[in-house]
Amino acid sequence: MGLDAPNAGTVMINGRRYGDLPWPLHEVGALLESKAIHPGRSAYNHLWVLAQTNHIAKKRVDEVLDLVGLSEVARRRAGKFSLGMTQRLGIAAALLGDPGVLLFDEPVNGLDPEGILWVRNLLRWLASQGRTVFVSSHLMSEMALTADHVVVIGRGRLIADRPVADLVTQSSGRVVKVRTPDAERLHPLLQGAGATVSTGTDGSITVEGIGAERIGDLAAEHGLRLHELTPMTASLEEAFMDLTRDSVEFRGAAGEPLASDTQAMEAAR
Amino acid sequence: MTVGAQTLATLPPPAVPAGHYGAFGQMRSEWTKMRSVRSTIWTLIVTVLAVVGIGIVATAVTAAQWRQGGIVDHVTFDPTARSLAGLFLGQIVIGVLGVLVMSAEYGTGTIRATLSAIPNRPLVLACKVAVFGVATLIASEILTFAAFFIGQQLLKGTTPYATIGQPGVLRAVAGAGLVLTVLGLLALGIATIIRHTAGALATYVGVLLVLPLILQAFPVSFQHATIRYMPLVIGENMAATRPDIHDFGGGVLLSPWVGFGVLCAYAFVALVVGGVVMVRRDA
């Protein structure tokens, strides 16, 4: 956005540096910091101030206010808005110029469940129109629901840049949950096939190293009963933890990541 | 409030205009920014009270107490300067407005939105200066002329009074408005450098009021050599029609217009430094 100078490198948008775009708001819309509003200025004037700089008509200001559901409070001072309303106002500002590229920084932070659903639908809808929607978030479960493509950045380094489905598949399928009344007999068979087996508290066993098909076949060959045979799908969160194990900045004593500068970024096309 | 694809898809996309962003749009935006917050309105009301209100009080008191005054008071009386007595407080209030125009952007974070819409930072600063400068100039001139004419009406009858055609009077009244405007721009420049409302205001008030006080700790020769460059002294000198009375035996003060030129140089330097750091620093 040309706001902070990078230590190195350049960012090109549609082949141009941000500063060289003829009408920036028509090409890139951004929600960076939704709290960045003058508390004494009305929602309408907040948008009108931005619209005027990029030759955007008053009609469009009304449109985006309508789109985010703030028409009724458009003349109220933005300082009185709730967090959710402020977030909507920020999204409205990003959409002002009807840009093809959208950047949303933590768009669902602090929203209630209804608001989160609304933002998720809006992001999918914007992407479905052929726009590129970048979303940065710490919420992996949220990303799993909205993103097509994930870019994981940790400590300033690129850790992953691939489709979400890809990432999840890679981290899953290797673990299978098995429930059987014949655990004592199955155990050595599985170990003989090269799997690692552990017994869970609820009596189920967790098998790592061989697939569900192989486990099923082994049981059938020896006439053992299986009550459950479930390949465990890793969540995006688990996949993310896998990836970032070495790059988180702070860890708890037990090696659990407490907080990190790692962020996943979604790009939906 | 679910957003359905049907309701949204009906929106026609706005056409991308030809050409390039520029000063016209940015100046309209700056004007909207100024008039859409209450602080501007309040500051304007306080400026009216300061410049016109204090002018009324000062001239009314003079008219009422004229007979009790001594001969020296009568000889040195400057009716124009008396009606412009509110200039002192007006300078501080205009400075507050000048600071807020810039520091509010940094304080609230809207500067990032502003610079996202118009990435050319010198252009943003120039448009702010232009809109604030013109608006302040118009308001200041209306106020100083109003203070002068109302004040002279109050003086008339009991005391000597001035008319706009007398030597130096038009210069003093119009010049007082110019001084207010340039001081406002100086405050805007300081705020661009410092970016924090409180820090910028303290610096502005320090330059205006505290600097002359500090000067009193120095030898008289040094005071005489430097007092002429004080913004407050330059302003008072501009608003007086008889600067010789205030001059310490002559030769200490600058002529009103030379003083004004020095004041313009202060504001110019503050704005240029502000522009340079604005381009260099992260927003």
Describe the structure.
- The complex is a heterodimer of chains A (269) and B (283).
- With 269 residues, chain A is an alpha+beta fold.
- Chain A folds into two domains: 152 residues, P-loop containing nucleotide triphosphate hydrolases (Rossmann fold); 59 residues, 2-Layer Sandwich (Alpha-Beta Plaits).
- Chain A contains ten helices and 14 strands.
- In chain A, the strands form four sheets. Chain A has a six-stranded mixed β-sheet with strand order 3-4-5-14-6-7. A four-stranded antiparallel β-sheet of chain A has the order 9-10-8-11, with helices on one face.
- The longest helix of chain A has 16 residues.
- The radius of gyration of chain A is 25 Å and the shape is elongated.
- The two termini of chain A are 20 Å apart.
- The C terminus of chain A is likely disordered.
- Chain B is mostly helical and 283 residues long.
- Chain B has one domain.
- Chain B is built from 14 helices and no strands.
- Chain B starts with a helix and ends with a helix.
Descriptive key words:
heterodimer; A: 269 residues; alpha+beta; Rossmann fold; Alpha-Beta Plaits; 2 domains; 6-stranded mixed β-sheet; 4-stranded antiparallel β-sheet; 14 strands; 36% helix; disordered C terminus; B: 283 residues; mainly alpha; disordered N terminus
